[in-house]
């Protein structure tokens, strides 16, 4: 007879018991147990698959250890997923998935929904004026006051070229929440999944629903630091081979967004030399041109299950930005090998 070692929910390991199959009323856990066992046995080590002997009915210690670690990982990732959804303030749900390895939630990462100013930096700069339009799509609205055209069409798709700033209606405007010029400020409306990639790129982000071309997908947020501090941190990040520094150099080069410790879903978006997301500078309540908000829009139709990527150098598809605007997210000193796999891959992230 087969017996299963059971860890009882809410009880310590010292109360674990061995139970026959007929005592187990947990079909989901049993399915996960067999799936984990099958996945482990299917792994190839040193070019040879691990195949148990037919007459060996006991569970090998290595397999048991893997199954326990996988179960604990699953619980940890579920708790992290719940925490992310408690903290996010947008409509879209966040899911977490790892079918690749035993990596759990990242340590030392804190989810935020908007810029977090470093000590000594003030982000308080509310708009001094707002529109009084009854229909912002047809009247002289905030973009016109800033000397640019309204960024969106009637389908909420962006219609301006990269390098052109977006000016959305702000808290002083008389238009309501359904205004066609309020897109980025409403946050992500798509359900996204943070998943473990199988190509060695760590965590990535994929969409669980279809995203139409030229649609707002997410905002890039993090800790706002000075460019001098970014230089210092950049040296440390280079040695670790990570890239989270995004220069806010729309008109000046005073500030940088660091999403290494503080960030949102965009923290996990990987680089690609042929990306499906494009960067735009956005101004809403804070009209300080040194501190634009960074929005990521789709460059083409993105299908459900497809990974989201943007070019860390912003030289990918759809980029026709002017020479005066540098979209480079990071000041890198050590060349980092690119693993995007695109036909047009440049070989390095920098």
How are the SSEs placed, and which strands pair?
Blueprint (H helix, E strand, L loop, with lengths): L2 E4 L10 E4 L6 H16 L1 E2 L2 E2 L11 H27 L6 E4 L12 E2 L4 E2 L24 H4 L20 E2 L24 E5 L6 E5 L8 E5 L2 E4 H14 L4 E4 L6 E4 L3 E2 L6 E2 L5 E7 L9 E6 L10 E2 L40
Parallel strand pairs: 5-9, 6-15, 7-12, 8-17, 16-19
Antiparallel strand pairs: 1-2, 3-4, 9-10, 11-18, 12-14, 13-14, 17-18
Family: Belongs to the class V-like SAM-binding methyltransferase superfamily. Histone-lysine methyltransferase family. Suvar3-9 subfamily.
Keywords: Cell cycle, Centromere, Chromatin regulator, Chromosome, Differentiation, Metal-binding, Methyltransferase, Nucleus, Repressor, S-adenosyl-L-methionine, Transcription, Transcription regulation, Transferase, Zinc
Protein name: Histone-lysine N-methyltransferase
